[in-house]
Amino acid sequence: MEYINKLKEYYSSKKFLENFIYDGNDLGVECDENGTTFRLWSPEADSIYLNLYEAGDGVKAYRHIHMKKEDKGVWSFYSDKELHGVYYDYLITRDGKEVLTADPYAKACGINGQKSMAVNLKRTNPSGWENDKAPQKGAERIVYELNVKEFSYDKSGGFPLEYRGKYKAFTCKHTTLNNDGIHPTGLDYLKELGVTHIQIMPMYDYGSVDETKDDEFNWGYDPVNYNIPEGSYATDAFHGEVRINEMKEMIQSIHEAGFGVIMDVVYNHTYSLDSWFQRTLPWYFYRAYSDGKVSDGSACGNDVASERAMCSKYILESVLYWAREYHIDGFRFDLMGLLDTDLMNNIRKELDIIYGKGEKIIYGEPWSATDTAIEYNKKVAGKDNIALLDENIGAFCDNTRDSIKGSALRPKEAGFVNGGKDKEDDILSSVSAWCDPKYNKEFEGVKAPSQIVSYVSAHDNQTLWDKLGDTAGKDEVMRLNKLAAAIYMTCQGTLFFLSGEEFGRTKGGLDNTYNMPIEVNKLDWELAWKNKELVDYYKGLISLRKKLSGLCDKSKGSYKHITDMWKQKQIVGFTINNDSTSLWSQVKVIYNASKKIFEGEYLKGNWEVLCDADDSSLWQKNISANSQIKVQPQSVLILGKR
């Protein structure tokens, strides 16, 4: 413990800060046809040997090279040969002890990430990669969260056997249910659904599965190599260039299909404390309390010290690398509430400079499992500090989620749709993305809807279908699912939902399936057609949403588009005011969570029914609404005025 404290003091000392903060952006390996350069930042090392291997699972190095000590704690070696495909690690001698480590800055690796690999990245580009780009920005962004393996593992998806659970599954054109040639699955299905962005759960190299086996499964929130694709999703995990090429092919295919790609990143902790960070410079990259106790705000055994200069630099450069090399369109930060606000704002600033203001999407979880031992009086990027974040850094809104369906952490607790009491004010707050001062008591400091992700389900906790099944009658679940979807899809903010939510995805009531078998987690594509009425309801809501400018507006003050808010027990209503780009100047929305028909005012003027309990595509049918308002039990009614 005393050892950790002494190191912490040293890393904060003037001597260390003046001598060892490296400002170059070339750490790791640079490899091309002109030669290869290795650079490792490891202050306090007495000597470092670079070991070269012929294979990624090699035990015996064919060459040992004494590296040159440079300024600022950097060690280097240059070869005039293109060492593409050569594997390597480092033997560091420090205080008379030797430690073997892979390269924390590596961009390629061998099986299970234990050996780094030199890579000429140009060689990994698929045909046409130089022309790959995200589709044009639309009126709204609607994010669909999925996992590479879950998405294509089940045979019902119609993917080729050799590509199931792999990056390559996303390159398969026009897959259909059980290969019937009729019912689309995969990207064609998502195109019909109407989502705009695909958020992919961890696809960097993680440590919780053995890449030599095909039957293991984990969500992957266990980083080992931050800048390298996960090998278990590749058709060949033994050759380091394959996973890079196949991930790029996947992204290219998703872009061609018309979607943006958002990457789920986990910079708040590592798989193990015995990481490449720790082996390279002990305790620099991790937080600890003054008594020497390791900080564990992640509940995963460690917290990364984002507030330290070289750690902050590492995370920023990693994000920029994924955006540049892999054409990633946005980033979802796991446990963002453990990272500091300065880092998050700096990431936002640098992405804006390179790609344009707000072009790359950033949002994250504004919480942590417990407190963290952050230093230097830095503030964490949690919910309480949202006012300190750039307005284009979003946060998952648990207030909206829990007010609609009940607590995600307490399975039996109900929300507005499933019988929870006194939820009406929270629902009204959710509508304006917690930006309306009159209705915001719980989420102070929100600047604009751009800071709010409105949702009811994600990979964590129960699926929406299972939650509703636990808190309501079985015959009510379909109605309540439609109502829950209608509520968050008529809230301001960025819309987000878990893959399969739209077809009643179930995990048998289980609430945290991160390490359970793929059979529990896989998408059952047959449900998409068994519950087609629910899928169609989502389709209609998504399409309607894109036509309502008053909801799509993410700017400061856009809460003013929402007027005439009212409530009574289990019923909430409001009006959306749209601009001239919308078909309807005004839209009335009423949520009826009660089990009785709600009867309201008599309408005058040119009103039409846009959505009711059964059909979310009525807006296409010109159905007049010049009569008394009637809202069916446990449903929504949406009316538009031309």
UniProtKB/TrEMBL annotation:
GO terms (BP aspect): carbohydrate metabolic process
Principal EC category: hydrolase
Top-level taxon in the UniProt lineage: Bacteria
Domain (Glycosyl hydrolase family 13 catalytic) ranges: 178-545
CDD domains documented for this protein: AmyAc_Pullulanase_LD-like, E_set_Pullulanase
Alphabetized GO MF terms: pullulanase activity
EC id: 3.2.1.41
Keywords for this protein: Glycosidase, Hydrolase
Stored InterPro entries: GH, GH13_cat_dom, Glyco_hydro_13_N, Glyco_hydro_b, Ig-like_fold, Ig_E-set, PulA_typeI
NCBIfam families per record: pulA_typeI
UniProt family annotation: Belongs to the glycosyl hydrolase 13 family.
Name of the protein in its database record: Type I pullulanase
Organism listed in the record: Lachnoanaerobaculum umeaense
Gene: pulA
